[in-house]
Amino acid sequence: QVHLVESGGGLVQAGGSLRLSCTASGRTFSSSAIPWFRQAPGKEREFVAGISGDDNITYYADSVKGRFTISRDNAKNTVFLQMDSLKPEDTAVYFCASSIWAVPFGELWDDPGSYNTWGQGTQVTVSS
Fold first, then answer.
1. Distance separating alpha carbons of residues 68 and 103, to the nearest angstrom
2. Closest Cα partner for 119 from 48, 17, 21?
3. Which terminus of the chain has a smaller tally of CB atoms within 10 A, N or C?
4. How far apart are CA 34 and CA 12, in angstroms?
């Protein structure tokens, strides 16, 4: 069973940057699809970005394209989310997750049900 821990959240001004990390323990996840989701108060969990296992193809929500970059370092068993040009509407708790597949079943990247393991989340707050 893989265990995921997110880190790197914090408070930043609009236009600033943060880099989130999702580190896995328990087993290697280089062959697993890893997404980032976020959840703001009173809203549903929302897909942000994902990276496939093995070939590292990336996927992004339209709201973050051109501003966020997902990457992975398999030697460190870590997936990163580089967030630039942050906006107040990016404020949320950010979660990473893991699939047992290299690509979520049916390529349903934005369905939380596609993933079997979740981290505890890290808070990102962007002030205006």
1. 20
2. 21
3. N
4. 25
